[in-house]
């Protein structure tokens, strides 16, 4: 039987499959590692993020050096080196991007991470010049100001997107947390601000408390397939309602995970935790599992699946809303919890 066609389109990019390597430093900081990921079947790679704090720190340091001795005698005016020779952090990222773009044949997506509007977004223009195939704008913050309203937070997010959109003509995807009062309305406003796609969702890495040392420490927990439920639901709710490509991230470990997310309406699935656990070769396994499922269910292409179980196209659209909650509560059996696997 003919092997299924796994190709998909995301942000205007033609990809060999929906299997994209998501942004994670251990996966993308080394060019040789990126080449191994490509060889294993990555359809595209998202580089690790360049953070707003890194850019602003570099800008402040550059300013400090440039004004040092500014009130000295005229003979000292030629003392300062040309700005082009200053080594700043985001220059290293841009060189890495250029190298990745020159050595990989798959699309390379740059990642820019910030929380506040500002001049740092101008680096997006340099990412485009460095050869990025697209840009993923990761807007990550934990609002703690009790006087900052939800409307103000949403407007701040939209301002960042509009500022980046003004800097580049690259395809632009926005990666967000799910914590909005009405995410559907926010998606509509993001599209109007210039976003071409959404990456759902950003996972907050919650700190933990060391009860012996009395310290707050990071505690990284890799995602599992259970984490897919939230992005699956919102992708299904959003698919077909806005001119946005939807990417799922957080918990893709099996070929059937990819199938479910495509059915919900995802254009691609980003893979991170499975690769951190099992290495680049897991991509080949995911591709084989996806191909085998399509063969067994007589699908010629992966594109046939996209959105077939979205809210607009599934047999019962109410299943994505309150009725699903009510049915889940009514049909739950305590014996199911007792038999479930877990740390308890």
Question: Can you describe this structure?
Answer:
This protein has 13 helices and twelve strands. The protein is α/β, with parallel strands linked by helices and 344 residues long. It is globular, with a radius of gyration of 22 Å. About 8% of the residues have low confidence.
Tell the overall outline: globular
- The portion of residues assigned to helices is 40-55%
Determine the number of helices (DSSP H or I, runs of at least 4 residues). Answer: 13
**H/E topology pattern:** EEEHHEHHEHEHEHEEEHEHEHHHH
Instruction: State the total count of DSSP E strands.
Output: 12
Radius of gyration from CA coordinates: 22 Å
> Which secondary-structure class do the elements indicate?
alpha/beta
Approximately what portion of the residues adopt beta-strand conformation? 15-25%
What is the spatial order of strands in the main beta sheet? Answer: 3-4-5-6-7-8-11-12
Gap between N and C termini:
46 Å
Poorly predicted regions: 61-88
Mean pLDDT level: 86
Largest sheet: 8 strands, parallel, barrel
Topology:
Elements: E1 8-10, E2 13-15, E3 19-21, H1 25-28, H2 31-40, E4 44-51, H3 52-67, H4 89-103, E5 108-114, H5 123-129, E6 134-139, H6 150-167, E7 172-176, H7 183-193, E8 197-200, E9 208-210, E10 215-217, H8 229-238, E11 245-249, H9 255-264, E12 268-271, H10 273-278, H11 282-296, H12 322-331, H13 334-339
Parallel strand pairs: 3-4, 3-12, 4-5, 5-6, 6-7, 7-8, 8-11, 11-12
Antiparallel strand pairs: 1-2, 9-10
Helix pairs in contact: 6-7, 8-9, 9-11
